[in-house]
Amino acid sequence: MPKDRTIALRTPLAFFLISVGIVAAAWWWLATPVTLARAPIDAATKLECVSYAPFRNDQTPHDQTLIVSPQQIAEDLVELARVSRCIRTYSIDNGLDKVPELASRVGLKVLLGVWIGRDRAKNALLIDTAISLTRQYPGVITAIIVGSEVLLRGEMTVSDLREIIRSVKPRVDVPVTYADVWEFWLRYREIGPDVDFVTVHFLPYWEDVPVRAEDAAAHVDHVRLQVAAAFPGKDILIGETGWPSHGRMRDGALPSRINQARFTSEILDRARRDNFRVNLFEAYDEPWKRRWEGTVGGYWGLFDGTERKLKYPAGAAISNHPFWKLQMACGIVLCTLVFAAALLTLRGRPSPPRLAAWVAVAISATTGGILLGTGAEKMFLESFGIGGWLIQGLLLTAGILAPLLSANALVSGRALPSFAEVLGPPNGRARSFMTNVLGITLIVTTLIGVETALGLVFDSRWRDFPFAALTMAVVPFCTVALLNSPGVGARPLAETVFAGLFAAASLYIIFNEGVHNWQALWTCAAYLVLGITLWRPRTVAVVETALIATASALGEVTPARQVSG
Known about the structure:
With 565 residues, the chain is an alpha/beta fold.
């Protein structure tokens, strides 16, 4: 090999080693485990109680024909009996009327929930069934919870709720209560005399002003004392409290495995120390809730919803990325492929590219290598339905292809094509296959970026932030736009409109989500980088192509020389 060729290869080799090292170091840091002072769940010290719903996979309580099999419920209760003394249910529909009988076989007590709403006839039928079960299993059912958040949902007036509670109490020999969020207990204190104890929900993540995971346990305890002061002489049961392990941030509240385990450990420690009762929300992840509450709704469980295994076994260190070695390996492979694409392109050049091109290749490879594992993880966790899988899959595919195609463009000196060069009339399209693939990938990224940005503007509460896969795609495109595009020139109309849309959406999202939401800030930064990429000037030839496409769409076939004046 010629000496100058050997010297030329030292630069990409050095950058490659640096990139791989950064990818490995980043994943080692991201996966750093945490060992809590007290295990969140310890079979030696059983939980007071935990919320239980039996629905798995596509099962949902909204399916009125669904009857969950007793065998399925029994399997869950065997596992729950190992870590808890009690379970709380919310309904006796869908086969849950079998829970008291099955719980009696494994030694579990039951807080029996009755799901009431607008349908008065159904309410009466459910209440009659609950009373019958209470009489049939007096040593198992320790209380009846008549309604859960029915006032919060606006499905019943306070007077109607009080009437139902008062009608139930004389018919049973166990305590009767109602469950709702703490704000509604403080708003409707007149319910207090009608219940035997107050069942309050504290979900710091969902509050109007979300609370950080680090402060959540202290917040729950503080508000609990306010509720206790508002109902003197009444026992207080924390009927729901918990933290999600996956999903979007709300202000500074970050769902994660470590945060879920930490909050659970801290609230249980406070309960033992200050002697108050806690029912944890919830036993198992419930995938069906993702349709109604977004990704975060499906990941509140202490047990995995698919494998039905405890997420945090006692004594085990807890990591946010338990599969980090596989994610790191995939990232290193992508990083290697990006440099390989650049080196293969180098073979067709008479002279080596400038140093800035290799810096850009390294930035693209490192970004993709770090974020590939996160992007893939988010795709599997956040995709719901055919549309969700299609959007997430296309965005991740674009995130993988973008650094590979951009490496080729950076080394060959090829500029980003305009949309018109890819989608315009045949006589104005780019001739290069690689240019067309690069342009199609950019268009797909832009369209998905618009879809996600508008979703975060108009329907933000349930939407996840696509920061990982989006960044994988936009960073390589931006490096090509900055290095291989002219500093002066005109801007095609379509790209200009999209750039303006991303800028406006980013400003609104930041305002709406708050400056403590780093997922929102990161996503908006990616939108702005994509906007800058689209805003970059194009050459005169590219502008002519865009004008030709416009003229063709209007039925006017105009030679390029005439279009350009």
